[in-house]
Amino acid sequence: MSELSEFRNQTRAWLETSCPAGARGPGQIPWGSSKIPLESDVRLWLERMAERGWTVPTWPKEYGGAELSRDQYMVLIDELKRINARTPLTGRGVNYIGPTILEFGTHEQKERWLPGIARGEGGWAMGYSEPGAGSDLASLSTRAELQGDQYVLNGRKTWTSDAMDCDYIFVLARTDPDRPKHQGISLLLVDMNQPGVQVRPIRLLSGASPFNETTFENAVARADDVIGEVNAGWTVGKRLLQFERSTHAGINISGSQGGRSAESNLAERLKQFVPSRDGKLQDPELRERLVRYEQNGHAQRLTQKRVIEELKARAPGYASSAVKLTGALHTQEGDELLLAAMGTQGIVWDGPGLERSDSEALRTWLRQKSLTIAGGTKEVQLNIIAKRVLGLPD
Amino acid sequence: MSFSFTDEQEQFREATRRFLQDKSPTTEVRRLMETSEGFDEAVWKQLSGELALPGIHIPEQYGGAGFGPVELGIIMEELGRSLLCAPYFGSSVLAATAILEAATEDWKCELLPALAAGEQLGALAVTETGGRWDSDGIATVARDSGAGFSLTGTKSFVVDGLTAGFLIVAARTPDTGGEAGVGLYLVRPDDAGVTRTPLETMDATRKLARIDLLDAPARPLGEPGADWPALQRTLDLAAVALANESVGGAQVMLDSSVEYSKIRMQFGRAIGSFQAIKHRCADMLVEVELAKSAAYYAAQAAASGDPELPALACLAKAAASDAFVSTAASCIQIHGGIGFTWDHDTHLWFKRAKSSEVFLGTPDHHRELYLQRTGV
Fold first, then answer.
1. pLDDT at residue A309 tops 90
2. B116, B150, B228, B359: which could join B64 in a potential S-S bond, CB 3.0 to 4.6 Å?
3. d(CA B131, CA B153)
4. How confident is the model at residue A360 (pLDDT cuts 50, 70, 90)?
5. Are B294 and A298 a contacting pair at CB < 8 A?
6. Which of B271, B275, B293 to mutate: most A Cβ within 10 Å?
7. If pLDDT is split at 50, 70 and 90, which confidence band does A357 have?
8. What letters, b where the CB count within 10 A reaches 16 and e where it falls short, cover A288-299?
9. What is the pLDDT of residue B1?
10. Å from A253 to nearest chain B CA?
11. Nearest Cβ partner of A303 from B4, B277, B293?
């Protein structure tokens, strides 16, 4: 028996006995926040997986990982999917800042931060965009001034998803205002539990408020919590964006989020709203759109698999821009199809006689307008592909 | 199942690509597409002898190299890049696959070694004047007189049908309809009752013929009247091969667009610096990559006997056809005025894209089949 199939057998056996019933199928997935209580099975699953190093399977053992090879990682994800196990831990800790610290941090920083991230101790927010710096991120104006052994931060970050439930925030801030804009930025780790950090919710078009504005007023960060060189934050921060994009794209192999449960069956959902005969949608236009959607989804899943297989290193390449983009467009098309099938039923989101799942479809459609904006807009992704992959000039 | 090509497969791709770059520059493509036979005998001999390409997927016991659909896909992708004028698709892919899938052991032993060696050419005649790829499109009748079979009907759009030394013809037993009654028959083109007429094709790099059959003598290749499943598998495998050819062509269209965008100056700057061009090129890349995933994976599925192959073949064919047609159209657009001249090479691929798009069934046809086969 090959080593890999032996690994598969052992993994399968261990998962069968170790994954509690309450961690299978749809449900709660932890992302590190200390402010969100975990269901008991979810906590148990997280602890068991963390102990084995499988919340961050490819990380070095000394920092909380299991040093799995890419092939072993793929087997683990396969096996998680097989029993419909949820990912034990997701979020910006294991997916964004963790792999960034792993790549750019000092040994001391890795020891201090990574094991905790691997165990899900602390939820992370992302302090990148500002009111005046969106796609042109390098124009950011939040300042971090070194005073003694700490940095003092002042400024305003926007679109900080989940910030109200976060314990830490990684912040791109200007550490040298006299240098050209790309060369005076640093990436800092900041504790959110201090009076200088204020979070104000931003209400979205879906009516929900997972977004926030986060204000720093003389907030402090330890001087040794700058990741990478001081003023080299643009390079480090762009790397983190690649981890973000590859997470959106479903090709980040830092955490074990490949174990997410399968997509719901859109065809069956559509048939609840529009006539079908012998299982076929009667409306030819809708049927045409559905099959294009299904085929695109299939090609998309195959591409994710191919990109992961072709990864030479742990860190993702620029392919993440392409896969993030197609994934976002695909998901949005699914939302559009469902709304098209719902027709008039799709314009009311609360009231007597409405199914909860129907009103959720509407909110999802609204919320997921963000998919071609958040994590870099569609246009920014196309620019990245044109410039970095195809080498087209500025 | 994985996508990854092994080191040996990559080396094989390299060798094939070098050969084709050497033997099939577009000057050669243009020369050969104007000839009636459509290919260069000497190049075909080299390709058959030195590289053993025609028998790549034919088992060793029948004189082939004993590889499979993945290697065949590699060759097809490279052929899509180079547009080599040769009877590879018609003979090595369509005819050889039909024999492998449908023929009796005796026929395999008789026909395959010469096909594998490139010494004999075959062609597969499925479609008729209506151009349909489903079983209802087969109207040619096979009659059994007791002393032997004879075929009457008209086959059309037969790839490499004019140069083939034998024809494999899909015909049905009298008074049958649909999938029942379809059989594959071997017809010798020099026999009485067989008339072959060349068709003037838009894509001159891929020759098509019309074949009129009037009581033409025929011999059953497999089980008379029960060959539809084998023919369907043949068409699926051919769709996977054609999908791989198409992604090769689509990549050329993308590369050519990008290269031109970098050197063509307007308004004092390279046109590739304009976002309208940048985004169009990026869109092309995305489309090509998705189609490649589908085409490569389908070839792996064919090689490993994956039960999902019928659905994956449809996915690959539809995605690759769409990607090839759309990248070729974009390539013309990005080249501007020069892009729609005869002298510029883009139209060679554009025409191949269009003819491959409908060959074996349109993307819509394959989307419908995909729905049926995935049970959506």
1. no
2. B116
3. 14
4. confident
5. yes
6. B293
7. confident
8. ebbbbbbbbbbb
9. 66
10. 17
11. B293
Measured between CA atoms, the residue of chain A closest to residue B294 is A299
Residue in the structure block whose two tokens are 């191949």? B352
Residue B220 CB-half CA count within 13 A: 20
Mean pLDDT of the A277-300 span? 90
Distance separating alpha carbons of residues A256 and A19, to the nearest angstrom: 14
Tokens of residue B347, six digits: 């139209």
Assign A27 to helix, strand or coil.
Answer: coil
Q: Which residues of B are less than 8 Å from A383 in CB distance?
A: 275, 278-279, 282
- Chain A residues in contact with B289 by the CB 8 A cut-off are 303, 319, 322
In contact, A260 and A116? CB cutoff 8 Å? no
Q: What is the pLDDT of residue A258?
A: 56
Give me the residues paired with residue A168 across strands: A124, A191
Contact B4 A322 (CB under 8 A): no
* Residue among A298, A390, A393 minimizing CB distance to B315: A298
Residue B276, Cβ density class (10 Å: 0-12 exposed, 13-18 middle, ≥19 buried) = exposed
B-chain CB neighbours of A390 within 8 Å are 258, 281-282, 285
Residue A106, amino acid: T
| Residues forming beta bridges with residue B209, ordered by sequence position | B158, B198
- CB A258, CB A72: distance < 8 Å: no
Tokens (6 digits) for B372:
């049926």
The CA distances from residue A17 to A11, A83, A99, B25, B111, in Å, are: 10, 11, 29, 61, 56
Q: Closest by alpha carbon to A27, among A14, A8, A46, A13? A: A46
How far apart are the C-alpha atoms of B97 and B88, rounded to whole Å?
12
Cα four-point dihedral sign A23, A29, A31, A32? negative
Is the overall model pTM greater than 0.95, yes or no?
no
Which residues is A198 bridged to in the sheet?
A215
Chain B residues whose CB is inside 8 A of the A376 CB are: none
Tens of pLDDT, residues A71-107 = 899 899 999 999 999 999 999 999 999 999 999 999 9
Residues of chain B contacting A291 with CB distance shorter than 8 Å: 367-368, 370-371, 376
Nearest to B98 by CA among B83, B108, B85, B84: B108
Kindly indicate the confidence band of residue A317, based on its pLDDT and cuts at 50, 70 and 90: confident
Residue A263: predicted pLDDT: 58
Sequence letter at residue A246: S
Q: Say which residue, B306 or A352, is predicted with more confidence.
A: B306
Q: Is the pLDDT of residue A261 over 50?
A: no
The pair phi, psi for residue B82, each rounded to 5°, is: -100, -15
Q: What is the pLDDT of residue A312?
A: 66
Please count the residue pairs, one from chain A and one from chain B, whose beta carbons lie less than 8 angstroms apart.
Answer: 105
Whether A385 sits inside 8 A of B285 (CB atoms) is yes
- Half-sphere CA count of B5, side-chain side, radius 13 A: 19
Closest CA to A86 of A64, A54, A116: A54
Which residues of A are the active-site residues? Answer: 244
Helix, strand, coil content of chain B in percent (nearest 5):
55, 15, 30
The nearest CA of chain A is from the CA of B371 a distance in Å of 6
The lowest-confidence range among A95-99, B91-95, B364-368 is: B364-368
Q: Distance between CA A315 and CA A20 in Å, rounded?
A: 31
The distance of A64 to chain B (nearest Cα, Å) reads 29
Nearest CB to B285; choose among A280, A294, A389? A389
Q: What is the ipTM of this complex?
A: 0.85
Q: What average pLDDT does this structure show over B6-25?
A: 96
